Structures are given as C-alpha cells and as structure tokens.
Structure to design on (210 residues):
C-alpha cells in the first residue's frame, strides 16, 4: 500500500477524525498525541510526528511494522516518538485483542498522572459509567488505572507495563506521569468511546476530591 492508498483508507479517516475531535475537546492540542490502528498481521497505521491535530487529515498517517519501523514506501516519514508503545500493545495479540490505540494529553489525565504517580495507580468507583468497560457489571466495582513513570526511552515504560501485568489483570488504560493516557480497543470507535468514558470518570473524580 502506498501513501495515496493509505490516505483513502477508512481507518486513516477514522483516526484523523479522532484527532480533529480531540483537539476541539482540548485533549490533543498542537502536535501532541498519537493514534494508531491495526491494518493487518504485518502493518500498523500510525500518525506521523509533528502533525497539528486541528488540521489532521487521513494523509497524515504512515505504515510501520510491529517493531515500529517504517514500511516500504513510507521511509521518508517519521512516525510518532511513542510508536513503540503502540506496537507493544499490538504485539500482545489475543491477550489484549487491540486493533486501535489512542493516546491524548488531556488535562484530567495529566493532572491525575501527577497526583497519583507515587501510588502507581488511580482507583475509580461508584459511577455508572464504569459499566462501559468489559467485566464491570455494577457501579460498586472499582476501576484501576496504573500510572507509570515518564521516560524518553520507550522500553522503560514498556518494562513498567510488563511488570504491572505480572501482578495485575490487563487494565483498560494506563497513565504516564505528566504525560497523558493510553487506551485501546477492538475498533477505533470503541477506543474513542473508552477514552470518552475515562475522561468523564476522571472529571467526576476531580470534582469530588478535596
């Protein structure tokens, strides 16, 4: 697939629409954030580095392999700096079942990533919106979101994620200290819906805390 064909692909259009929407909600200001979707068993569609999300279009994506290396015909483009984090989630295969990964720098996710960095996790309970997530049947359940230390070296964050999974079930998302949130799902639409629900829950938690 060349860049012209990719720009016409429905998944690229869906991801670009997320970028435009998240910018309007102030989750992805300027060139921050990155979004991806699984194209096939060898290729990942991911946003290119430095793209302003307000003006993002389906032409602002490229193809990388599962190690984050640009696919042939896309060597001239630079993928997002955090491409390795996306690839790591896709490499987990059926354990996660992710076909789309969305990352934003929303205010509430960054705020709570700072507030709960020492604890290493944030717990949310008592809200009906929690039931949007698989396995949660009642508002009386608790939703746990891990918080990992920030690093410019992506393998450091990946190692923290793997260490967390050795002792805990797969979370619905994770936060990176001072950075933002990563969430994933089986479709771009579902990943977007999960982020909306998480943002709603984080905002409510912010409003009820002293």
């Amino acid at each position: 697939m060349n860049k012209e064909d990719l720009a016409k692909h429905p998944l690229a259009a869906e991801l670009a629409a997320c970028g435009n929407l998240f910018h309007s909600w102030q989750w992805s200001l300027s060139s921050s954030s990155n979004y991806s979707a699984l194209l096939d068993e060898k290729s990942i569609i991911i946003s290119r580095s430095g793209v302003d999300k307000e003006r993002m279009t389906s032409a602002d994506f490229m193809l990388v392999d599962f190690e984050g290396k640009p696919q042939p015909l896309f060597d001239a483009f630079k993928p997002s700096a955090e491409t390795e984090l996306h690839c790591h989630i896709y490499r987990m295969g059926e354990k996660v079942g992710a076909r789309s990964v969305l990352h934003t720098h929303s205010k509430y996710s960054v705020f709570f990533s700072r507030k709960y960095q020492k604890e290493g996790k944030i717990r949310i309970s008592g809200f009906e919106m929690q039931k949007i997530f698989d396995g949660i049947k009642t508002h009386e359940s608790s939703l746990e979101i891990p918080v990992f230390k920030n690093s410019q070296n992506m393998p450091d964050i990946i190692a923290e994620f793997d260490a967390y999974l050795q002792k805990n079930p797969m979370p619905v998302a994770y936060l990176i200290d001072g950075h933002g949130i990563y969430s994933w799902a089986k479709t771009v639409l579902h990943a977007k819906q999960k982020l909306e629900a998480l943002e709603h829950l984080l905002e409510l938690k912010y409003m009820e805390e002293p």
In short: The mean pLDDT is 94. The CA atoms of residues 63 and 72 lie 8 Å apart.
